[in-house]
């Protein structure tokens, strides 16, 4: 069996959709919302005690918003999965957690990245003792619904949707963009290949944010909305490191980022405009 904790998010939904019906259990949020607490071990053990040994627990629940407090990032991104690992692994279950490649790419992380880095260190320690636990550091995901408004793609999509200027830095930052379905296929292949401990899920073909923005605005016919170099360049970011393709994912075909993200946004805009036109029609 496969258990998904955080099934309402895009990654949790995609993992559920990839599993055969009857072989996946998506936990209700009310079941695990207090598992971050120090005394949660007994509750976690009660829930999983009848699970078949060798089953997998995917902890996709997490917070990304940098506006959320450091304490909340710690509770959801570190304490929750850490307690699940401690209890579920003792029952013979495999646990998979998710982080960000920024854990290995920035020296002074924000609270989100710091909480994921703490989880990565915990997983590394657990894996070193022989526990079946994997921490997958992933890149930027798209697909599976509208991008979050606080993220780069969400702000870019908002500008295209409303026809307003999009102001950004010079855009030298390097990013890998992965379609959610491609990553689910890759993580499955990597886990089947025996990935344990802290591993990154990369296709090895990043683009700069400048390249991405220029391609999208040109392809969608609104290049005049792009304002490059208006905002300052972040001091802490990745400007040069390119991660190699992850072992175990060699047979997975990743969508080219520029075309893939553009197609994704084009579909969102088309859906938005159809809905807007429908609402404008007289009854």
From TrEMBL:
InterPro entries: Epimerase_deHydtase, NAD(P)-bd_dom_sf. Residues 2-193 form the NAD-dependent epimerase/dehydratase domain. It comes from the Bacteria. This is NAD(P)-dependent oxidoreductase. It comes from Variovorax rhizosphaerae.
């Amino acid at each position: 069996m496969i258990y998904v904790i955080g099934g309402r998010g895009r990654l949790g939904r995609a993992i559920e959709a990839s599993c055969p019906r009857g072989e996946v259990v998506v936990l209700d949020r009310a079941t695990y919302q207090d598992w971050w607490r120090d005394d949660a071990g007994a509750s976690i053990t009660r829930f999983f005690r009848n699970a078949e040994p060798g089953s997998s627990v995917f902890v996709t629940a997490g917070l990304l918003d940098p506006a959320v407090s450091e304490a909340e990032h710690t509770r959801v991104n570190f304490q929750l999965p850490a307690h699940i690992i401690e209890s579920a692994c003792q029952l013979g279950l495999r646990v998979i957690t998710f982080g960000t490649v920024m854990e290995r790419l920035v020296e002074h992380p924000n609270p989100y990245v710091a909480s994921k880095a703490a989880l990565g260190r915990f997983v590394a320690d657990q894996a070193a003792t022989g526990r079946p636990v994997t921490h997958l550091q992933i890149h930027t995901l798209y697909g599976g619904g509208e991008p979050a408004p606080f993220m780069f793609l969400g702000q870019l999509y908002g500008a295209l949707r409303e026809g307003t200027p999009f102001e950004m830095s010079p855009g030298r930052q390097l990013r890998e963009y992965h379609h959610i379905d491609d990553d689910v296929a890759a993580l499955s292949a990597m886990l089947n290949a025996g990935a344990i401990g802290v591993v990154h899920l990369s296709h090895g073909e990043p683009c700069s944010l400048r390249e991405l923005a220029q391609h999208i605005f040109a392809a969608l016919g609104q290049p005049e909305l792009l304002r490059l170099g208006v905002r300052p360049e972040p001091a802490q970011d990745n400007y040069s490191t390119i991660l190699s393709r992850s072992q175990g994912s060699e047979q997975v075909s990743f969508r080219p980022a520029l075309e893939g993200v553009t197609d994704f946004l084009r579909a969102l805009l088309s859906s938005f405009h159809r809905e807007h036109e429908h609402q404008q029609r007289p009854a």
